[in-house]
């Protein structure tokens, strides 16, 4: 059992920190994007250095009160809110937002955990380099949170998840010690990889205070195309063909369903739909190639080979930077259209690539037996990451479907599990999926996770209730 | 204190395993490539399945006897030998050598931990794909050991270390439980990353029994060139230029010193030296490009730009596959020449890329003050990984240098540490570098490592004395 943070303790803590570190408990700290939980916090502190973070953590440890680390607040699984239990200290990263250094010759950037993703991208661009992590919330998500949740996004196919982009960390561990691990090395085999343990631990094993991040050359020639594919299996074959021809030059490979295009029409989104009538399936392929390669020509040759192999039967290659942006607008407006239609249940799942066609067929069939649904299945096909979202039939509303959400999600997640997939591809566990982790997680892994948590955070102060259920 | 494995216990264990799992204690299990230690073992077992491994581990746990996992035996830091303390069970992976599955559509291969690297490479090639891990001992190193030590090699620049090539693991944890984590997913954010914790733990946190591995498209156009650079700083600028022009197409970027070429001449190695007289510094650049790109032309253009920028002043582009092989033979024969000359001290170090020119200058100067040495500095410059090896002056032998090794290594490692580098870039800690880890390791990280070890392996049976000093 944790102790709640009290007013008296908050006053005590305030004497140990600079005045600027003490924040008002504003509503924005207690909300999360899905509006599913209302958080609580007895105080909000915003330390500016790892030493100040350590002061807070040691204080929390001494008094047995919980600490909830808070980045940009954009997480979708409630890892950043504390809806119940003892009132915590909310520890905001916002004052550790500096880009500490850019090393162009190393292609490395060192940022405080509070640095906003868009600012990191901009700092990389100023050095004529690329920080490839890119996702919808990049204007407010902070590096510490992005690493704590191992964020994904649209460039994972080529550059990996947040995890793969991190060379080193500075972090405060649950005992209040500071790990000075801001290495900028590509190779460093000196003991257990604490970096990868903290990445993805969602603030339950410590607080990331800074990170050294990998930068990449900016691909000079970008090009995009829509290609109409026969079915998801043909899309996979097209992906393999594209990678065989162009290697790492394939930057993104997104699956879009006819239903997604239909939703754009139905909800009157102001984007130019690429085909009319809508095909059943299409992919958006993006290339990023060296200057020496003509990327439009490369797309044309890929299309010609795919046509020959009967994988595709129609296509559009963007003829200008503006048209490329229009193509992406189609892809990026689908979630907005989904919101207007109103999903019964959404799923952030991943599957072994070769299982995807079978999964889609089986899940569609099982749901058709369960009720009258429409399915918009789309996502980062190159990563095996699907957003398999279930909607009411045309003309009906999700309120008519009562408690179907639970049944639909159980069906989808059971099938994903059976087919060796994951019920959380990129969003993490947070507080939303603790039950799913208990249900689907490997028992040996769960036991090891609990042992590690108990070893590093014996008093359980770090973000209790996230990832692992807090002890009663 | 561990109990030694005894003859009686060995007989008991033998009754719990199939007869084929019981091996003779042959000398090959007790030797290591550097001949620095003689190992001991009371028995050798070679289980064929994770379940049999679990049986061994549970037995060891019940009796408090140590277990030393044994892959190909090629490790260079003694992680696979037990020279002192209680006699262990040596657990060989050799009977788990099957390639369990190849999934061409997913670009994934699943191998038992005993699979030999060259066999994995061949299985990938049969599927027209590439498993890019490549190093000198690939004919005998086994996947389990390669992952347990997070092996590196020549393709890390483009494809990453062993760690980055692994999607999932099956492993037996120190309590004898089996973690069924053979995921084939690119995205899976479901709790702490046990995979990355076991990778690089050198068998001290469990036994890897199988792995799912990433495969890649095979670059269709390969080309290589030697380029003579002004100095290591110019080599770094050339690397940045090459990556700006060709992105991930730069597969390898190796630094070679004039001393390396000189050693080839001096020891009469049968390779064609590329320049005469030997320049001070050169690099070997390898490209692997899509079929649509002319890789020789790309190298010519790179050379022309580098000449213009005064980074290079001479160069040779391989004109045939045979010549490309000859170029690589120069690079790969340098370690052999080194052996013939006889090093006083060798160092497998890494540095932030931009620190490399300064490090080389400072270390050379400091060693010149210390004594009359010759230095052959070469290695994977693209990874910041140098083999900074120190030799006797011409005409002298290392025996004349008495105890200089210790002093030289302390000087080099102290300087590497001060410049934020690593004293073990790719070989790991094993038993050789436990003292260095204690000396240079971050105290908070070391404490966390010890806590994790105690939590997962409370009786300390897994490879005691490797990575972390065994309790007295």
Explain this structure to me?
The structure is a homodimer of 472-residue chains. By secondary structure, chain A is of the alpha+beta class. Among the domains of chain A are: 99-217, Uridine Diphospho-n-acetylenolpyruvylglucosamine Reductase, domain 3 (2-Layer Sandwich), CATH 3.30.465.10; 221-418, Alpha-Beta Plaits (2-Layer Sandwich), CATH 3.30.70.2190. Chain A is built from 14 helices and 18 strands. Chain A has helices spanning 7-15, 50-63, 117-126, 143-148, 156-159, 194-198, 232-246, 258-266, 295-308, 321-341, 356-370, 404-418, 434-440, 443-456, and strands at residues 22-23, 43-45, 67-70, 89-92, 99-103, 108-112, 129-130, 166-172, 178-181, 207-214, 216-217, 221-229, 250-257, 281-289, 312-317, 348-350, 373-380, 385-392. Chain A has a seven-stranded antiparallel β-sheet with strand order 15-12-14-13-17-18-16, with helices on both faces. In chain A, strands 5-6-10-8-9 form a five-stranded antiparallel β-sheet. In chain A, strands 1-2-4-3 form a four-stranded mixed β-sheet, with helices on one face. In chain A, a hairpin with a 4-residue loop joins β17 and β18. In chain A, α8 (258-266) packs across α10 and α11 (356-370) packs antiparallel against α12 (404-418). The first copy, chain A, starts with 6 loop residues before the first helix and ends in a 16-residue tail after the last helix. In chain A, 58% of the residues are buried. The mean pLDDT of chain A is 96. Chains A and B meet through β9, α6, β11, α7 and α9 of A and β9, α6, β11, α7 and α9 of B. Chains A, B: Its cofactor is FAD. Chains A, B: Belongs to the FAD-binding oxidoreductase/transferase type 4 family.
